[in-house]
Design a protein that fits this description.
Structural class: alpha+beta
Number of helices: 5
CATH architecture: 3-Layer(aba) Sandwich
CATH class: Alpha Beta
CATH superfamily: Transcriptional regulator MraZ domain
Order of helices and strands: EEHEEHHEEHEEH
Shape: globular
Helix content: 40-55%
């Protein structure tokens, strides 16, 4: 399970060093990851094992038309990468453009159970500020789960 928030530097080629707790989880399931467009201006990152589970769920859940739409609009825009020997992952170029990197060349990784989200740190802070009211509204239910 992915959890936590991590700030990672991105080099000029679009690579970042994967924090060790995350890297260990990904490497336990292979070296490769899948990148997808996420909500707002974020990317989703799945281990290949988790991505295969997503594909299996879509095959068993979606009808033929929905499956084609999933393939045309989600899978066709996905990109893969592998953790290199130094623990870095390259964000595919066409997807990297979706998460504009500021001058400080940093991204924010956010753990979400079976996947990670990748955000520009400024966009992440704006998103949290925009959704804080919803969090407050739902706080009682969330607290009951803890």
């Amino acid at each position: 399970m992915f959890a936590g928030e991590y700030h990672c530097k991105v080099d000029e080629k679009g690579r970042f060093i994967v924090p060790s707790p995350i890297r260990e989880q990904i490497e336990a399931e292979g070296q490769a990851v899948m990148f997808l467009k996420g909500p707002e201006q974020s990317l989703l990152l799945y281990s290949m094992k988790e991505w295969e589970k997503v594909l299996e769920r879509t095959r068993t859940t979606l009808d033929e038309d929905q499956s084609r739409l999933f393939m045309h609009f989600i899978v066709s825009e996905a990109g893969t990468s592998e953790i290199d020997k130094t623990g870095r992952i390259l964000i595919p170029g066409r997807l990297r453009k979706l998460v504009p990197v500021d001058e400080d060349l940093e991204i924010t990784l956010v753990g979400l159970y079976h996947r990670m989200e990748i955000w520009n740190p400024s966009e992440w802070r704006r998103y949290i500020a925009r959704t804080e009211d919803r969090y407050e509204h739902n706080m009682a239910k969330i607290q009951n789960l803890l």
